[in-house]
Amino acid sequence: MRFAVCGILGALLSGCAVNTNVSPVQQLVGLRTADLRVHTIFDRLARANSDYCEAHKADFGVILHALGQYEGKYRSLAVRTYGFKTRLGVEAVVPGGPAAEAGLKQGDSIVSVAGHPLPDVTGVDLVSAVNRQLDAAQSEIDLVVVRGGAKQVVDMSPVRACAGEIDLDVDGSRDAGTDGSTVQLTSGLLNMIPNDDQLAAVIAHEFAHVVLNHPERLDRAGVSHGIFAGLGANGSAIRETERQADILSIFLMGNAGYRTVAAADFWEGPGRKLGGFLSDGTHDGWKERASLLRKMSTRYQSEPKAPIWMQLLNDRDKPLEINGKARDGA
């Protein structure tokens, strides 16, 4: 569970790694394509596994961005590329989701949400504020948008999904993690996983940490996440949460219709190239992970095809056990 700090749009402004071999417009188009790919997988996992989650949200399958997130040369390029007519736009729409079915389109610009004008904030704060409005919707909600120079009303009805978000960082490192609510993935890792089932395995692993409340439980147990995280009881506790996340990830994937065997395939393929935090004692090696994941995939395939309740879910509010003893500093 690692949580990076360089946001996808911030990367364009703060010197984080961006491919300089393509034009700025191509960068923006590529960011939108990558954002849609990871959001589509995350939404599918969050909807299919809503029975597993303690916290829920209304899901519409829409990815928003604000003009204020783009600065310098990217401001005018964003207007030209994405078609901003207001301060808030639809970056992309998840195929098959409620927004897509309601007729919301990529490039629409939002005027109002549920009869309320856009909040008087800018940039990422504006995106967060409107996402909170959408997440809290109890029933159909209407958006007034500008499309082709004219205003239109789009009425969307949400579906129930697990609470949480996914964020893509423009960063050459190969990393993924979560803070307990947001799953974060670097573009360096995304680019090495062209297979969507294998990418779903990586996202499902981090999402499993969210479902099992691992970050909060590690913090309550006083487990260090720093340079000495892999040592002694700290390393033992973190390794156990990583194994639990691997186990649950298979069920999250299968419930969402992804090939569960792809998780083992990832560690026997692209995952073998990963080093860094995977070598600090907090994770099992790729062979051990692949073996466990393949075994759990076989188990999942032998179960009835319905959401399967696991003991791990019953234990997610309990203190973590470290060296056989429950430890909770709360």
Automatic annotation (TrEMBL):
**GO MF term (any one):** metal ion binding
Q: Which cofactor does it need?
A: Zn(2+)
Which BP terms in the Gene Ontology apply to this protein? proteolysis involved in protein catabolic process
Ranges in coiled-coil conformation: none
Task: Cite a GO CC annotation.
Answer: membrane
PROSITE patterns per the record?
A: PDZ, PROKAR_LIPOPROTEIN
| Record key words, sorted | Hydrolase, Metal-binding, Metalloprotease, Protease, Zinc
Question: SUPFAM superfamilies per the record?
Answer: PDZ domain-like (SSF50156)
PANTHER family cross-referenced by the UniProt entry = METALLOENDOPEPTIDASE OMA1 (PTHR22726), METALLOENDOPEPTIDASE OMA1, MITOCHONDRIAL (PTHR22726:SF1)
Family that this chain belongs to: Belongs to the peptidase M48 family.
The name this protein goes by in its record: M48 family metalloprotease
Organism, by scientific name, is: Stakelama marina
